Amino acid sequence: MNTVNDIFSYMEAWAPIRTAMGFDNPGLLVGDGSALVNCVLLSLDITPCVIEEAKEKDAQLIVSHHPVIFHPLRRLSPQDPPYLLAKYGISAICMHTNLDMAEGGVNTCLAETLGLEKVEGLERDAESGLFISLVGSLKDSMTPRQFASHVKSALHCGGVRYTEGNRNISKVALCGGAGGEFLESAVRAGADAFVTGEARHHEFLAAEAAGITLVEAGHFCTENPIVDAMRKRLSDSFPTIRFLCSETMHDPAQYL
C-alpha cells in the first residue's frame, strides 16, 4: 500500500513547495507521512463538512488547494478543521500558490475550462519566476456580454460581475482566485478581456477606463476546476487508491 508521503512526494514533484509565494503555507500540514492510504478525498477547501465527509467515506487523507492552517494557530476548538483532522486521524496535504503556477495547475485548468487556445505565460512571479497569469485566444470572438455569459456557464458560477469593454473579445488573460492586481499586465499585453476570481473597485474603474472586459467570476469558481484535474492525475499514478472529489465542497458565496 501507498503512504501519505507517497502522495505528498507526487504532489511536490508537480508543484514544488519552494515555488510557493512567501506568505503561503503549503505542504503536509496535518498527519503522519508514514500512514497507509487507500482512499483520498480531494477538495478546494478543508471545512468541517469536508472532514466529516472524509470520515464517512473512510478516507485517510484530504488533498486540498487552500491551506487548512494558514495563519499561526493561537487556539483550537472542537469545531476547528485542524482539531477535527487530528481527532479522526485524517492527514491533510495542501498545495496553494505553488499549484496556482504549476504547469497543469489552477491557471492552466481555468484556461482549459474557458476553452482558450494557444495559451502562454503572461506575468511572472518575482520569487519563483513562474507565471502567475496566463493569456490565450478564443476560437470564436464574442461580445463582452456573450463572453461574461460564457464564463458564468463554463465555471458554473452563481453570477459574475463584469465591465463592458469597448471591443469584441478574442484575446483573454486570466488569473484564478484573487488576481485583480494583474489586470494591468493584461492591458499591457493587449488582451480584450481579463478573468479572475476577485477584483476591487478601483480595478473595475481601471478596466472601464482601459476599455477591457473584466470578468470577476468568484474565487471558488475560478479555482474549482483543479479538483477534478488532481483526481485524474493522482488516479493515473496510484491506481490502487480511491480518489474522490468532495460532494460537500461548495462555493460559500450565494447570489440573489
How is this fold's topology laid out?
Elements: E1 2-3, H1 4-14, E2 27-30, E3 36-37, E4 39-43, H2 48-56, E5 61-64, H3 81-88, E6 91-94, H4 97-101, H5 106-113, E7 117-121, E8 134-142, H6 144-155, E9 161-162, E10 169-175, H7 183-188, E11 193-196, H8 201-210, E12 213-216, H9 219-223, H10 225-237, E13 242-245
Parallel strand pairs: 4-5, 4-13, 5-6, 10-11, 11-12
Antiparallel strand pairs: 1-3, 2-6, 7-8, 8-10, 9-12
Characterization of this structure:
- By secondary structure, the protein is α/β, with parallel strands linked by helices.
- It has two domains: 2-95, 3-Layer(aba) Sandwich (Udp-n-acetylmuramoylalanyl-d-glutamate--2,6- Diaminopimelate Ligase, Chain: A, domain 1), CATH 3.40.1390.30; 103-222, NIF3 (NGG1p interacting factor 3)-like (Udp-n-acetylmuramoylalanyl-d-glutamate--2,6- Diaminopimelate Ligase, Chain: A, domain 1).
- It has ten helices and 13 strands.
- The strands form three sheets. It has a six-stranded mixed sheet with strand order 7-8-10-11-12-9, sandwiched between helices. Strands 2-6-5-4-13 form a five-stranded mixed sheet, sandwiched between helices.
- Strand 4, helix 2 (48-56) and strand 5 (61-64) form a beta-alpha-beta unit.
- It is elongated and about 55 Å long.
- The model has no long low-confidence stretch (mean pLDDT 97).
